[in-house]
UniProtKB/TrEMBL annotation:
<protein>
    <submittedName>
        <fullName>Protocatechuate 3,4-dioxygenase</fullName>
    </submittedName>
</protein>
<keyword id="KW-0560">Oxidoreductase</keyword>
<dbReference type="GO" id="GO:0008198">
    <property type="term" value="F:ferrous iron binding"/>
</dbReference>
<dbReference type="Pfam" id="PF02900">
    <property type="entry name" value="LigB"/>
</dbReference>
<keyword id="KW-0223">Dioxygenase</keyword>
<dbReference type="InterPro" id="IPR004183">
    <property type="entry name" value="Xdiol_dOase_suB"/>
</dbReference>
<dbReference type="GO" id="GO:0016702">
    <property type="term" value="F:oxidoreductase activity, acting on single donors with incorporation of molecular oxygen, incorporation of two atoms of oxygen"/>
</dbReference>
<feature type="domain" description="Extradiol ring-cleavage dioxygenase class III enzyme subunit B">
    <location>
        <begin position="7"/>
        <end position="269"/>
    </location>
</feature>
Length: 282
C-alpha cells in the first residue's frame, strides 16, 4: 500500500530561482532563508520518497485569466517549465507519475471533486522552485511528481475548507493505492504577502507563525477562514495558504513537527518552512 510518510511546506517565490542561479545563497539578504533547508534536504535524502504530491498555484503560465480551473491535477509522465522572464537557464523537466495520478483522479472525482485533469501541462516556479530548494542543482529527476494546482489568482477561488477537503480526498486515494510507494506531500506558496496596491509589501508575521502552529496541531482551525479573511489578515496573495491547507488535509494520521524556519521579508513575502513526519493510524 502507498503511504504518506511526511510533508513539507515551503515558499515558491520566483526570486529564489534567480538567487540560486546566481549563487546568492550566502549573501546577507538570502542566508537566513536558505539556512533553513539543509535539515529538510537531509531528511528527504534519508527517506528517499518515491513520489512527491505538490500543491501549488499557476501564475499565468499554463492557466491564464481566460481559463482558470479551480483545481487541476497533472497525470502526465513529464512536465516542462517555460521561461517566465527571469532570465534563468533552462531547467530539466520534472518526472511525472501517471499511474498513481490517474488513480487519484478517479478516486477524487468519484468523491465529487470536478478536477481539471491534465495529460499535458507546463509548470511554473510554483512547482519547480520547491523542487530545486530540496534538490539543489535541479537534481530532482529521480523523484516522481504529481502536480495539484489550486486557483489562488482569480475569483471565485476555492475556500480553505474546500482545499482541505480536497487534500483529505487525495490522502484517502493514496492510501487505497495497492503499490508500495513512499509519498511526501508539499504545500507551497506564501505565507502573508501583498505584491500590489496600497498595501504592497504587507506582511503579518504574527499571523504567519500562528498558521504554522495550527497547521501542525489543529489544522481544521485554518478552515474557518474565508478567502476574504485571508486577504484582509495576510494580504492579497495570502490566499496561497490554501496550498498548505490542502497538503495538511492529506495527512490522516499522527503528525509530528521535525523542523521549522521562518524569515521575512524575502521578496516582500513571509517565508515559512515546515518538515512534518506522518505516521499512519491502524
Amino acid at each position: 500500500m502507498a503511504k504518506i510518510i511526511g510533508a513539507v511546506t515551503t515558499s515558491h517565490i520566483p526570486a529564489i530561482a534567480n538567487a540560486m542561479a546566481n549563487g546568492l545563497e550566502e549573501t546577507p539578504y538570502w542566508k537566513p532563508f536558505f539556512d533553513g533547508y539543509p535539515p529538510v534536504r537531509d531528511w528527504l535524502n534519508e527517506k528517499q520518497p518515491d513520489v512527491i504530491i505538490l500543491f501549488y498555484n499557476d501564475h499565468g503560465l499554463e492557466f491564464f485569466i481566460d481559463k482558470k480551473p479551480t483545481f487541476a491535477l497533472g497525470v502526465a509522465d513529464e512536465y516542462h517549465n517555460a521561461d517566465e522572464g527571469w532570465g534563468i537557464p533552462t531547467i530539466p523537466p520534472v518526472t511525472g507519475e501517471s499511474e498513481l495520478s490517474w488513480h487519484i483522479a478517479n478516486k477524487v472525482v468519484d468523491e465529487g471533486f470536478d478536477l481539471t485533469i491534465c495529460q499535458e501541462m507546463r509548470v511554473d516556479h510554483g512547482l519547480t522552485v520547491p523542487l530545486n530548494l530540496m534538490w539543489p542543482g535541479h537534481k530532482y529527476g529521480h523523484v516522481k511528481v504529481i502536480p495539484v494546482c489550486i486557483n489562488c489568482e482569480q475569483h471565485p477561488m476555492p475556500q480553505p475548507k474546500r482545499s482541505y477537503a480536497l487534500g483529505q480526498a487525495i490522502g484517502r486515494a493514496v492510501e487505497s493505492y495497492p503499490e508500495d510507494l513512499k509519498v511526501v506531500v508539499f504545500g507551497t506558496g506564501g505565507l502573508s504577502h501583498q505584491l500590489d496596491g496600497e498595501r504592497a509589501g504587507f506582511i503579518n508575521r504574527e499571523f504567519d507563525l500562528k498558521c504554522m502552529d495550527q497547521l501542525v496541531s489543529e489544522p481544521e482551525e485554518l478552515t474557518k477562514y474565508s478567502n476574504l479573511d485571508l486577504i484582509e489578515i495576510a494580504g492579497a496573495q495570502g490566499v496561497e495558504l490554501n496550498m498548505w491547507i490542502g497538503m495538511r488535509g492529506c495527512l490522516t494520521g499522527k503528525v509530528t513537527e521535525l523542523h521549522r524556519n521562518y524569515h521575512g521579508p524575502i521578496s516582500n513575502t513571509g517565508a515559512g518552512l515546515l518538515l512534518l513526519e506522518h505516521e499512519h493510524l491502524d
